[in-house]
Amino acid sequence: MSASKFQQQSMLTLRGSLLSLAILTFVSLTYLSLNSLHSSFSSSAQSSPAAISASGKQIIQPLRETEASAGQEESGNAKEDEEAGRSDGDDEITDLYHYPEVFKLNYAAMEENFKVYIYPDGDPKTFYQTPRKLTGKYASEGYFFQNIRESKFRTEDPDQAHLFFIPISCHKMRGKGTSYENMTIIVQNYLDGLIAKYPYWNRTLGADHFFVTCHDVGVRATEGVPFLVKNAIRAVCSPSYDVGFIPHKDVALPQILQPFALPAGGNDAENRTTLGFWAGHRNSRIRVILARVWENDTELDISNNRISRATGHLVYQKRFYKTKFCICPGGSQVNSARITDSIHYGCVPVILSNYYDLPFNDIIDWNKFAVVLKEKDVYQLKQILKDIPHEKFLELNKNVAKVQKHFQWNSPPVKYDAFHMVMYDLWLRRHVIRY
């Protein structure tokens, strides 16, 4: 036999041996696997509530009585919690809010935890601690001064406080005939005294401090104290972010003229036959343009001056009841009390201001109950309003009534009113960097 044939026979013999070994190994592993599987089925039938019957079908064993009753109790509690959640103001929290559920949770946390320390310094008979009055264009400042003392947010312990209130009233200064220059000096001296006496300002350079002032007087009085304006939270009625207002730090205070002369309106679209209404002084560029362009229009009720009382009792206020859209141009500042007048009387407000950070803008969606325009839109104002579909107007009119509670001051304050909304905005700004 040649050497080549011998090598071929050897290779065939080796291959056959390897194949036989592989077959034997496969059979052995299969037997062991089946045997192991049979053992696991037997053990699980004894120890598990889910067993395998002789026919191979799974049998679910019933829960023990204690497990069943526990499950029923848990299900009942969950149902009760769900029902309690629905009754706990859910009907008040609608899609008018940017994030309804987040707002509800944060609001509850604020009510439970938020604490504010009011510096006790300053004579209430001069410019500190108490409001001058609760009426007129400065009413929002007065109500806040009063409400903060009536609320549960006040703490006498500064170590518990999230924020510190600087209780100086520029409105009271104005009432005593103080000049703007002297106002600035008074504010500066009062703040210097607080910084020298207490350690709290220096912990954050004032980032957890706030002051409240309405209309232009307080803005002009505090502008001369740069580190106060830069560091502290400003709650102001004229939140124009082209002249120093910082939206993520400061708070827009709604300017509300209370008491209202007539009851609230709303959900009354069928009574509103006038397309648009405005009457007032021409004390700003946008008001001058508004009066010049639309004063003689037959569909827009635009008056060059305020309506004289001689024309009848509460004629101005009654116009709000008859109008679909109430025009709210900025005056000496970007804000206008006509916005909250419109909301109270159920008239859809038409915001006509540039750079206006609207009150509670980070909480509620103004586009769902108002028409927000730029000043340049004044020339197309009538067409813009006429182009709004009737269904959209009905929705806006309905939603205006829903937000009225947020633009109303009360004494003592009530849930979701203007005071609580301002406090909520402050609560959102409580997280500060401690240097």
UniProtKB/TrEMBL annotation:
Belongs to the glycosyltransferase 47 family. Residues 66-93 are annotated as: Disordered. Residues 76-88 have a biased composition (Basic and acidic residues). It is a single-pass type II membrane protein. Keywords: Glycosyltransferase, Golgi apparatus, Signal-anchor, Transferase, Transmembrane. One of its GO terms (molecular function) is glycosyltransferase activity. The keyword Glycosyltransferase applies. Transmembrane segments: none annotated. The keyword Aminoacyl-tRNA synthetase does not apply. Residues 111-387 form the Exostosin GT47 domain. It comes from Linum tenue. It holds the Pfam family Exostosin_GT47. It comes from the Eukaryota. GO terms for cellular component: Golgi membrane. It is found in: Golgi apparatus membrane. Its main location: Golgi. This is Exostosin GT47 domain-containing protein.
